[in-house]
Structure formats: C-alpha cells, structure tokens
Amino acid sequence: MKTELVNFNKIHSAVLSLTMGFLIASCSTSSDPVTTNVSNSVATESAEDSYNNDTEDLASAASSQSDVALGARTDGSRTWSDDRICSSTVITIAKKVNTNPDTLTIDFGTAGCTDAKGNIRKGKIIVIYSPGDGRWKIGGGYTITTSNFSINGVTVEGTRTVKNVSPNLDGDITWEVTLTGGKLTFPDATTATREAHHFRQWFRNGTPLVFTDDEQRILASFSGANVSTSTATGTNRDGYTYAMQVTKDISYKVTCLLAKIFVATSGTKTYNITKGSEAANITVDYGDGTCDKTITITVNGKSKTETVKRDDNG
User: I need a labelling partner for 48 at 20 to 30 A (CA). Which of 97, 99, 184, 300 fits?
Assistant: First the structure.
C-alpha cells in the first residue's frame, strides 16, 4: 500500500491565491465598487487560508515519515527532504509513556528558518497523536497547535484536528479536518479569524499500488461524520465576513501536477461576502475534469471564463 501523499495542501493554498489574484484583476476595472471590494475580500481570504494550511501541511508531511527519518535530522543525517525545513530546524518525538500520546514538535527557533522561496518561519508546530490509535489507523489522527509560530511575521494561532474517517485502508483514504479558534495577527496589528471544517480524500482510483492515477479531493460532503459538509467562516483583516462552502468535490489529479498544471480539474465552491451594505455571491468552477488551467468565476450572476497563469508554469 502506498504510504506517501503529495503535499496537496500546499498546492491547493497556492492555487487559491492564484485564482483569486485573477479575480481581482478581472474585476478591478469594474465600475461597481462593491464588486471590486468583495473580489479583493475573497483574494484576502484565500491568502489568509494559505497561512492556516501551512501548519497542517507540515504536520501531515511529517506524520507520513518514519520515526527514524524524523529523528535522524537531530543527529545531522537528513533522510526527510522538505524545502521548508532548514538544517537548524529541530524535530523531536516524545514517545508515549503509559497513556500519554506521542508528540511531535517542529521547532524553527526564534531566529527562524528561511525556505527555498524566501518565506521565514519561526516558533513551533506541535502535533499530538491520538492515544493508541497510531497516525494512520482508522479512527486515529492528531491535533495540531502552535507556540509563537509565524510565517513572514504573521502569527498563526488555532487548533486543527485531523481524523482518519475512512471505512477501510484498502481503498480511498479520507481525513476529517477541523480548525477551531483560527487567528492570524499581521505585522500592522490587523487580525483575521477563521473556523473551518472539510474532508480531504486521497482518491486511489481502485489501484492502490499505482500512484499516477491518484487524485486529492476536497469533498463537498461525506456521510461518515457528524458534520457532513466542507465549509469555512470568518472575518478577514479588511473587516469582511465570509462563508465558504464546497458544493462539488474539488479534485487535483496527479497526472496534471506532474505536467505542472496546479489548478483543480473539477469542482465548485461558493462564497458569500458581506460588510455593512456590501454583499456578493461568488462561485468558482474548476471545470469538467480536463487537465487544463481554465476556471469560471461567477460574481452576482455574471460569469467569465479565464485561464489561470503563474510565473513558473505559464
């Protein structure tokens, strides 16, 4: 059975920012200030989400490694390669004693770690695993918290819980992810808050030994949990309140990623944005499954189809 999973969270967050960056550009010439403001608000929300997702992705990547691979970094023998981790980053594993759970700490230090793209991380990410359930067992999972953790001066707070809700480990693997008390504090003292719940699925297409036909999906709904939908709510640093919901499974295909196409191939999500008298309903449609960079954005009933571009893949 495959035990490695592409860092889709990092890719998904980047794509959100790229997509909403286009939304600003496409609406900035509008004569309607409401359209421009709410479009900027969605872009802001997407950028803020990427900060929140960073801790989950690092914890997920670390959790897929063996204890030997993680522990080896502390004695100078690098067996886990990740461009967000520096040689000075200290990774420790506190093994369970009696009923206490395993705890993994990723410590970037007070001086910080500058990754390959110039992002600076400081502080700690703390991962506490479910007692007795292991990291990958059905019903198992982990909780992610932070201690003075920041990215580029933006302090990240909140508690994420990740639980394996898959019916079995032979087919698709599904995680339920919940963020509570999410808060970002920016260098200018502005803040953003976020509560989120979604289902992240490793779709293996009935071929668990073949990686290239896999997909990562953000599910619109899942029947095996108390809360069955993928949603997020909060207030961004510009004072806009938003509610987001995935209305059709959002899918990222490995074959597309290998071709450097980092845009989802299908799925839809909606945003309801409000601030005072300003309001808008926005839908992002990623397409019909074709491996391309085309998306359709609808703002208050008006739609436009465009191609998402990024510097490193055109």
Answer: 300
Q: How far is CA 160 from CA 119, 127, 304, 310, in A?
A: 22, 9, 35, 30
Q: Which residues pair with 173 in a beta bridge?
A: 202
Cβ contacts of 301-308, under 8 Å, gap ≥ 24: 304/26, 306/22, 306/26, 308/15, 308/18, 308/19, 308/22, 308/263
Domain boundaries, the chain: 8-307
Reported as a pLDDT band with limits 50, 70 and 90, residue 54 is confident
Are the C-beta atoms of residues 55 and 146 closer than 8 Å to each other? yes
- Tell me the CA end-to-end span of the chain in Å, nearest whole number: 35
Amino acid at 277: S
How far is residue 22's CA from residue 302's CA, in Å, rounded to a whole number? 16
Phi and psi, residue 45, nearest 5°? -60, -40
Model confidence pLDDT, tens digit, residues 243-256 = 999 999 999 888 88
Query: Partners of 122 in the beta sheet?
Result: 150
Dihedral over Cα of 191, 192, 195, 200: its sign: negative
